[in-house]
């Protein structure tokens, strides 16, 4: 019934919390679990690859183009960095015996999430009410707000501020 479930993650605690529900649902429905991270901020290495700012991902235009078309860069270090936000959820899912697909895209998170569900025929999204961005307690983060408006499939939103 729900063959493919998507858990989009920005590496936040909120997404981790949502993942527990995604695992339960994937087990229940014997679904494939897609874990997607969208890189939304990157620095083009215009001047030099040597100047590294901590916390920022340096991506060449070629790498960005690759990510947009669903491919991973060849460079092992960059690849590892890009996979990191999905790693914990993917590992936990696999430990539970769930079939996991790990993906990374580049662009606007809400747009990439919507493109992804259409491309891979995803049946359900499980995500956090908030992520890394907002410090204030708005009802919903902007990614979840937009995904709820645009997705034609069920979206399960896990409240970050309640247990
Ligand atoms: P805002 O981004 O509006 O400042 P926020 O970061 O607190 O606020 P959202 O971005 O809406 O809130 O995050 C809510 C959920 O959306 C996260 O728990 C996660 O499931 C998903 N999400 C957010 N950003 C990304 C991303 N870059 N890649 C994949 N999933 C994301
Ligand atoms: Mn955000």
Number of helices: 5
| Ends distance | 28 Å
Which compounds are bound in this model? adenosine-5'-triphosphate, manganese (II) ion
pLDDT average, as an integer? 91
Compute the number of strand runs.
Answer: 7
Q: What is the N-to-C order of secondary-structure elements (H for helix, E for strand)?
A: EHEEEHHEHEHE
Shape: globular
- Please outline the major beta sheet: 5 strands, parallel
Task: Please estimate the helix content.
Answer: 25-40%
Unreliable segments of 5+ consecutive residues = none
State the name of the first-level CATH class of the domain at 4-39 and 82-158. Answer: Alpha Beta
Identify the CATH homologous superfamily of the domain at 4-39 and 82-158.
HUPs
**What CATH architecture label of the domain at 4-39 and 82-158 applies?**
3-Layer(aba) Sandwich
Rg is 16 Å
Q: Assess the beta-strand content as a share of residues.
A: 15-25%
The chain-level structural class is: alpha/beta
CATH topology of the domain at 4-39 and 82-158: Rossmann fold
| Strand order across the largest sheet | 5-2-1-6-7
Features:
five-stranded parallel sheet, binds manganese (II) ion, binds adenosine-5'-triphosphate, Rossmann fold, 7 strands, two-stranded parallel sheet
């Amino acid at each position: 019934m729900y063959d493919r479930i998507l858990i989009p993650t920005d590496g936040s605690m909120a997404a981790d919390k949502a993942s527990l529900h995604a695992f339960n649902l994937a087990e229940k429905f014997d679904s494939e679990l897609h874990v997607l991270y969208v890189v939304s901020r990157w620095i083009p290495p215009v001047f030099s690859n040597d100047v590294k700012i901590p916390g920022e991902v340096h991506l060449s235009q070629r790498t960005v183009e690759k990510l947009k078309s669903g491919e991973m860069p060849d460079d092992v270090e960059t690849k590892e960095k890009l996979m990191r936000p999905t790693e914990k959820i993917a590992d936990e899912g696999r430990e539970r015996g769930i079939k996991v697909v790990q993906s990374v895209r580049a662009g606007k998170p809400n747009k990439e999430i919507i493109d992804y569900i259409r491309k891979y025929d995803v049946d359900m999204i499980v995500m956090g009410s908030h992520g890394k961005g907002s410090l204030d307690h708005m009802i919903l983060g902007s990614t979840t707000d937009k995904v709820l408006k645009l997705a034609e499939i069920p979206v399960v939103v896990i409240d970050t501020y309640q247990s």
